[in-house]
Amino acid sequence: MTDLSLVLSGGPDKRQVAASFSRAAASYDSVAGLQRDVGTQLLQRLPVNFAPSRWLDLGCGTGYFTRALASHFTEGHGVALDIAEGMLNHARPLGGAEHFIAGDAERLPLQDSTCDLIFSSLAVQWCGDFEVVLREASRVLTPGGIFAFASLCTGTLFELRESWQHVDGMAHVNRFREFSRYEQLCAGSGLRTLSLERQPHVLHYADVRSLTHELKALGAHNLNPGRPGGLTGRARVQGLIDAYERFRQASGLPATYQVVYAVLEKPV
Q1: How far apart are CA 22 and CA 18, in angstroms?
Q2: Which pTM does this prediction carry?
Q3: Which has the closest alpha carbon to 130: 11, 267, 37?
């Protein structure tokens, strides 16, 4: 359930991604309402009566959905994998899986045809080469197995991005793949697309600081290459606040997440 997005190729250094989410392990669940909602919706998209004997929670984060999967598939056996050791250290004592493994979605440390289900909620967007992620998923899945993932695409946090553009034009917000790119890569993966859709989730905040604090607590603040270094001065922060106010609604300041939901099946 590790979240927010990697750009495409040439994205953030994965060591920085792992370190950022490791630091956020203790605070993550306290601000992860969206992540829980998205993962729950992804679970609901799995085929009816699907009962994997072995499943993988890919990008397990604090293990919230590792435990949910264990409760949902009581006859199955689970593996939880994340790139962030800090997240695994947090998740392991809480249980839910037989094994908790440090690993990368682009190089899964699992043998061929060993999982009936790969479940990944808000994690694969950190991978620079999603084509490789799909190839690895296909390799590890058994025939008839399911790869269900939720990710983020272009349009996510557009309010924050546009507000920063008014301030200094620099890359303060993580970048995201186009939805059309997900469609293209899934179609060419050799996996059968059972469902693939984009759905907006809009959260509201009292002020900009509440949003940026939450992103930091999630470990999902700006990890773009070429991001501004050092502290942000008061004038720039005030400029951001003023620019974001243009988006204010009755419910507060909106933050839009464009979520990609996909369920893919490996042909028999």
Answers
A1: 6
A2: 0.88
A3: 11
Answer yes or no: is 253 within a domain: no
In a domain, 146, yes or no: yes
Positive or negative torsion for Cα 30, 31, 34, 39: negative
Residue 265 CB neighbours (<10 A): 18
What is the number of residues in the chain? 268
- With contact defined as beta carbons under 8 Å apart, do 144 and 268 qualify? yes
In a domain, 117, yes or no: yes
59: left (phi over 0), alpha (psi -120 to 50) or beta: left
Given a contact cutoff of 8 angstroms between Cβ atoms, the answer to whether 173 and 160 are in contact is: yes
214-264 pLDDT, tens digit each: 988 887 644 444 444 444 578 888 999 999 999 999 999 999 999 999 999
b/e string for 192-217 if b means 16 or more Cβ within 10 A? eeeebebeebebebeebeebbebbbb
pLDDT digit string (tens) for 173-193? 788 899 999 999 999 999 999
Encoded tokens for 94 = 């809480």
Q: Give CA–CA dist 193/120, Å, rounded.
A: 16
Q: How many domains does the chain have?
A: 1
Which of 111, 214, 116 minimizes the C-alpha distance to 157?
214
CATH number of the domain that 45 lies in? Answer: 3.40.50.150
Helix/strand/coil for 85: helix
For residue 121, give the nearest of 109, 144, 105 by alpha carbon. 105
Residue 125, both tokens = 């967007």
Which pairing describes strands 192-205 and 253-265: parallel, antiparallel, or unpaired? antiparallel
pLDDT of 112 strictly over 50? yes
Name which of 19, 11, 153 is nearest 2 in CA terms: 19
